[in-house]
Amino acid sequence: MNRSAIFAAVAAVLVLHGCSTVVSTPPTARTVPGQIIDQAPQVQLNNPADAEQIVLFSYGLLGTGYRFGGRNPEAGLDCSGMVSYVVEQVSGVRLPHNAARIAAQTRVIATDSLQPGDLVFFNTQNRPYSHMGIYLGDGKFIHAPSSKGKVRVEKMNNRYFAQRFDGARSLFSDG
User: Fold this and answer.
1) Residue from 53, 72, 56 nearest 64 by CA
2) CA gap 37, 53 in Å, rounded
3) Are 48 and 172 in contact (CB under 8 A)?
4) Using CA atoms, how far apart are residues 135 and 45, in angstroms rounded to an integer?
5) Quick one: which of 106, 120, 125 has its CA closest to 162?
6) Could you tell me the CATH number of the domain that includes residue 50?
7) Chain centroid to CA 167: how far?
8) Are 42 and 106 in contact (CB under 8 A)?
9) Which of 17, 19, 97, 131 is catalytic?
10) Is 131 labeled as catalytic in the residue annotation?
11) Which of 17, 19, 79, 97 is labelled catalytic?
């Protein structure tokens, strides 16, 4: 195998890291289907106006192409890449580029407590928190769907997503 083939193989492996990455759970954490218990530092945004800005900024990404491992709109986004990009642009806080890790670092909330700017998680690959999006209000969320998709809005009661809903999280304090 020549150097360029080796380089291409290594680059491909590095690109395949993101929303769909299988992550080994840190030793201080344990995962239970539908719930993550973790001692990782919790992410908390202190400015309540950031929730509205997260929603507005995410609407600006509608139609952006999907790219596995993508973290910016120019190259394409995957689900956790989209969420971490939006949150960083709005608040300056950088989230992990992995849905399960984001779930582990955010506050669990009841589904009936969802507010625009909160995060919604889905089990789309037979493992908890394998997909995510940003809740927009009115029973809708925005996400970067899998390959050949574009950032779009879906209804929470969409048959596919309703059956795979894994929980809601918030980046904001409960008070």
Assistant:
1) 72
2) 28
3) yes
4) 16
5) 120
6) 3.90.1720.10
7) 12
8) yes
9) 131
10) yes
11) 79
Which pLDDT score, from 0 to 100, does residue 15 have? 32
Instruction: Confirm whether 97 is a catalytic residue.
Output: no
pTM of the model: 0.79
The alpha carbon dihedral of 154, 156, 157, 163 has a sign of positive
pLDDT recorded at residue 173: 85
Domain-located, residue 31: no
From residue 72, give the alpha-carbon distance in Å to each of 31, 146, 149: 29, 15, 15
Q: Domain span at residue 67? A: 3-21+42-170
Helices (H) and strands (E) in the chain, counts: 5, 10
Rounded Cα gap, residues 120 and 118, in angstroms: 7
Q: Which residues contact 113 (CB under 8 A, 6 or more apart)?
A: 168
Contact indicator for 103, 40 with CB cutoff of 8 Å? no
| pLDDT less than 50: residues of the chain | 2-18, 20-38
* pLDDT recorded at residue 40: 63
Active site residue 79: yes
Q: How many domains does the chain have?
A: 1
156, part of any domain:
yes
Q: Provide the pLDDT for residue 39.
A: 52
Predicted confidence at residue 1, as pLDDT, reads: 52
